[in-house]
């Protein structure tokens, strides 16, 4: 799996600006698995924490952020319409 650097993170930030929401906040999480540690990410958007789909090796942590951003952007776009951009509601 390969991600373009910050592509989804940038798109998510742009969508948040468009919907007049606070910028996303990323939270890195880890899970000890045997002798190794797996890394993932959660992104906070509109008061919701959205988990990335996958876990990554530590050297691919940016991929975890991109994965979380992609999931969040898809969710945001599927629950909001352009006409709701002026709405201040925190409910998706």
From TrEMBL:
It comes from the Eukaryota. SUPFAM superfamilies: dsRNA-binding domain-like (SSF54768). This is DRBM domain-containing protein. It comes from Neurospora tetraspora.
